[in-house]
Amino acid sequence: MFNVLGVSGQIALSWSTTTAPLGSSSFPLVPGVTLTTGGSISGTPTQTGTNTFSITAWEKTGNTGRNMSQLFTFNIKASSWPTITTPPQNITNVVGSNVTFTVVASGAPPLVYQWQFAGNKIQGAVTNSLTITNVQLTNAGTYTIIVTNASGATNNSATLTVISPPLITNALKDTIVPTGESVIFNPGIAGSPASVRWHVNANVITNATTVPLVLTNLDVSHCGIYSLVLSNIAGQASNSAHLLVVPPPAGADAPRLAPLSTSGSPFNVAFPSLAGYRYLVQFASQLGTNWETISNIPPSFSPSQVSLPVIPNLSNGFYRVVMTN
After folding, report:
1. Which end of the chain is more exposed for a tag (fewer CB within 10 A), N or C?
2. How far apart are CA 81 and CA 96, in angstroms?
3. Cα–Cα dist 198/191, whole Å
4. Confidence category of residue 9, pLDDT binned at 50, 70, 90
5. CA–CA separation, 180 and 8 (whole Å)
6. DSSP 138-190
7. Phi, psi (deg, nearest 5) at residue 59
8. d(CA 233, CA 194)
9. Domain-located, residue 251
10. Is 255 part of any domain?
11. What is the DSSP pairing of strand 91-94 with strand 153-163?
């Protein structure tokens, strides 16, 4: 009697004589196995049950002469080893969510379950399911289930991928540049990989899907509010900044500085300013002498009316405003 454990196992038996070649079998073989001319039985049984057969070896070719027969009984049993019929599946989810890995196994009872994370045993994780609550980035990795019974053990693994929301760590900066120059919008970003979209004045910029955003050979048509939008399944982040492109303060197409006005005693110096230009208010006691800057007005993103009180001890003299960028 031969007990072959496991329908999925392979039968590989041979029987030979030193005086004559083997002949053929005189019976139907076990379903799924074959007998070779060399005397080997091999294959994968396709059904359980008890099968009895004989093998006969003849002294001479053509199945003549003396012969010898041997009866064999195969008892094909269903495997008692544990088998994972439904393995755990890979999971992708966001930070703060709950996830559950589940496995379905068969085999001779009792079946013993043990979950591992990154090769380390998870204490108390001894059922066919594993739930992780409020997952964090540190929970991402490989989870393995080991199923054991008295006959042996088997295992299978699945991966948990945790997605965190995108973050913009360094905000975009408002920028003023002269025509013909370039600008680079390069904010700091963090979090899980995210899709990138750039907008200008709420309109999507075609093919602008990476960070940084580089704009070259600027002119006044590039002026506007530039926005970065990052998004993934965990959330979205956005940030915006102004871009102002101004022509040089000299040349045929340059904007002109409006006349100054004065008032008061001591008087004020007043003038309208244009967006994007720096203004220097300067004083000289006599024409032809060096001009002294008494006020430095940085560029702004919108035009305004500038009114500056003049220092009393500088009141007697000459004043001028220099527009620059």
Report:
1. N
2. 38
3. 18
4. very low
5. 75
6. GG-EEEEEEEE-SS-EEEEEEEEEEE---EEEE----EEEETT--EEE--EEE
7. -70, -35
8. 8
9. no
10. no
11. parallel
Same domain, 72 and 87: no
For residue 14, pLDDT over 50 is answered with no
Check residue 243 and report its DSSP letter. Answer: E
Q: Is residue 256 part of a domain?
A: no
Q: Are 89 and 158 within one domain?
A: yes
Q: Please check whether residue 42 lies inside any domain of the structure.
A: yes
| Whether 152 and 174 share a structural domain | no
| Cα separation, 11 vs 77, whole angstroms | 13
More confident residue, 56 or 117: 117
What is the C-alpha separation between 228 and 188, in angstroms, rounded?
11
Question: What is the average pLDDT across 154-158?
Answer: 98
- Quote the distance between the C-alpha of residue 165 and its chain's center: 11
Length of the chain counted residue by residue: 325
Domain boundary pick from 246, 280, 308: 246
3-state secondary structure at position 133: coil
Greater confidence (146 vs 175) lies with 146
Whether residue 196 sits in one domain with residue 127: no
What CATH number corresponds to the domain at position 273? Answer: 2.60.40
Please count the structural domains in the chain: 4
- The answer to whether the CB of 201 falls within 8 A of the CB of 131 is no
**Is the Cβ–Cβ distance between 160 and 99 less than 8 Å?**
yes
CA 191, CA 318: separation in Å to the nearest integer? 58
Last residue of a domain, one of 190, 212, 246: 246
The CA distance from 70 to 57, in Å, is 9
The residue written with tokens 């709420």 in the block is: 202
Residue 103: Cβ-neighbour burial (10 angstroms; 0-12, 13-18, 19+): buried
CATH number for the domain harbouring residue 206: 2.60.40.10
- What mean pLDDT, rounded, does the chain reach? 80
By the 8 A CB rule, do 268 and 306 touch?
Answer: no
Q: State the average pLDDT over residues 57-81.
A: 71
